[in-house]
From TrEMBL:
Gene Ontology terms describing biological process: DNA integration; DNA recombination
Protein family (similarity comment): Belongs to the 'phage' integrase family.
Keyword DNA-binding: yes
Key words, A-Z: DNA integration, DNA recombination, DNA-binding
CDD domains attached to this UniProt entry: DNA_BRE_C
GO molecular function, a single term: DNA binding
InterPro entries, per database record: DNA_brk_join_enz, Integrase-like_cat_sf, Integrase_catalytic, Integrase_recombinase_N, Integrase_SAM-like_N, Tyrosine_recombinase_XerCD
Organism: Lacticaseibacillus manihotivorans
Protein name: Tyrosine-type recombinase/integrase
Record SUPFAM superfamilies: DNA breaking-rejoining enzymes (SSF56349)
Length: 414
């Protein structure tokens, strides 16, 4: 698009025709061109109707051309753009980042590409990281240099590398969406450099530390709460354990008359969905199994405790009842696992542990013990195998087992 086209560019819908029009006279033999008189002499303008990217009636209406040839050239440029289907960047020049984000969110919710919890998380991140800096700015005015300076400032201000990556990922998602819908001609923020940022929190826990932490938890916690910890050692997400219901557990009898439990995940309880919402992805709807006598016994007791807390508070337990309740018979607080269990045991043992670390620990141990990546992926409820691979961590035990298995092939023949 030639630069002069934008100098006099003006678009308006039938509801927005507010400019005061002088008397325009059609230019003979030039459809769409008009002349009008001003104090500085004759000027030329264009009136060309069309349907915009939203399917609404718009009008291409630039004016102020000094000659009819200039106006004719601008009209031909516009006709070329119209024929090529590239009107979006023109008709949407006023779209701001906030408007584009809200539009993207609305469409993704309507098409069920996003769950409510996803939309809430994205909105929180947008409001926290991007809105103040860029929310009111037009997409076409957000330059690569300005955005790179914004990223660099986050690094200087001490944000973690993961936090910066999350903010950038959302910005790229918004800009790519705008490009895909022809609202901007190109996402000029692609491949923004992110160098620096503080290191992410360590998610490693050694086998010895894990066993020490778990021994203290078993000693200090009630069986009801320790069962919660044991369920987390299966690699479950915190919100999935809080969302477990009585119907999630199916008791079966296996070989040698040994009981085991099917554990089915139906809901997730988060700060945004305290009463239970959708799981993180379709892959998260899965079945795990509890087969050890210790865990089977703990689940038996946890189910009985859940029912007791219901009856103690004049409630009738049913399949939809959450397994973990407060003393008052209401769903357990979202912060309970972190604040009342993990923080307490970590302080006592001096070993830092968080629920998500157990998820990484499970993935690492499973892979080291020869489990197929695809099996671990399905067990953890991951959508792709790359995520599962990223959950594994190097361990001393794994390294020793590896070199031991290679002793023979690496030893020269005598």
């Amino acid at each position: 698009m030639k630069e002069h086209m934008f100098v006099y560019f003006y678009l308006y819908t039938s509801q927005e025709r507010t400019i005061s029009m002088r008397k325009w006279t059609p230019v003979p033999r030039h459809v769409g061109l008009y002349s009008y008189d001003t104090q500085k002499g004759k000027r030329y303008g264009i009136r060309r109707g069309f349907k915009n990217a939203d399917g609404k009636r718009d009008e291409f209406h630039p004016s102020g051309f000094r000659t009819w040839r200039d106006a004719d050239r601008a009209l031909k440029d516009f006709e070329s753009t119209l024929a090529g289907g590239h009107l979006g960047p023109i008709t949407h020049r006023a779209v701001t980042l906030s408007k584009q984000f809200e539009s993207m969110k609305k469409r993704n919710l309507e098409t069920e590409r996003w769950r409510e919890s996803t939309a809430k998380g994205k909105t929180y991140l947008y409001n926290l990281r991007l809105k103040d800096a860029f929310g009111d700015r037009r997409l076409i005015d957000i330059s690569r240099s300005d955005y790179q300076a914004f990223i660099n400032k986050m690094v200087i201000d001490g944000y973690s590398h993961n936090t910066i990556k999350s903010a950038n990922s959302l910005m790229q998602q918004i800009m790519n969406d705008a490009e895909h819908l022809d609202i901007i001609d190109k996402n000029r923020l692609k491949a923004t450099s992110i160098k620096g940022g503080t290191a992410p929190r360590d998610v490693n826990i050694t086998r010895d530390d894990f066993k020490t932490w778990m021994a203290t938890a078993e000693q200090d916690l009630s069986r009801y709460d320790f069962c919660m910890v044991m369920l987390l050692t299966l690699g479950s997400r915190r919100e999935e354990v809080l969302g477990l219901q009585l119907k999630s557990f199916v008791r079966e009898i296996g070989p040698n008359d040994q009981p085991y439990y099917e554990i089915n995940y139906y809901k997730a309880r988060t700060t945004g969905d305290r009463t239970g919402g959708a799981l993180k992805s379709d892959a998260a709807y899965r079945t795990n199994y509890a087969i050890t006598p210790t865990l089977v016994s703990l689940i038996d007791d946890a189910i009985e405790e859940c029912k007791k807390r219901c009856t103690d508070n004049a409630r009738i337990p049913n399949p939809e009842t959450f397994l973990y309740l407060t003393d008052k018979g209401t769903p357990q607080y979202i912060s309970y696992i972190n604040e009342q269990i993990f923080k307490v045991i970590s302080l006592k043992t001096g070993i830092t542990a968080r629920p998500h670390m157990f998820r990484h620990y499970f993935a690492t141990q499973a892979m080291q013990n020869g489990a197929a990546e695809s099996t671990v992926m399905h067990w953890l409820g991951h959508s792709d195998i790359k995520m599962t691979a990223s959950y594994t961590r190097p361990t001393k035990e794994g390294a020793l087992a590896l070199i031991k298995s290679l002793q023979d092939p690496l030893t020269p023949d005598k």
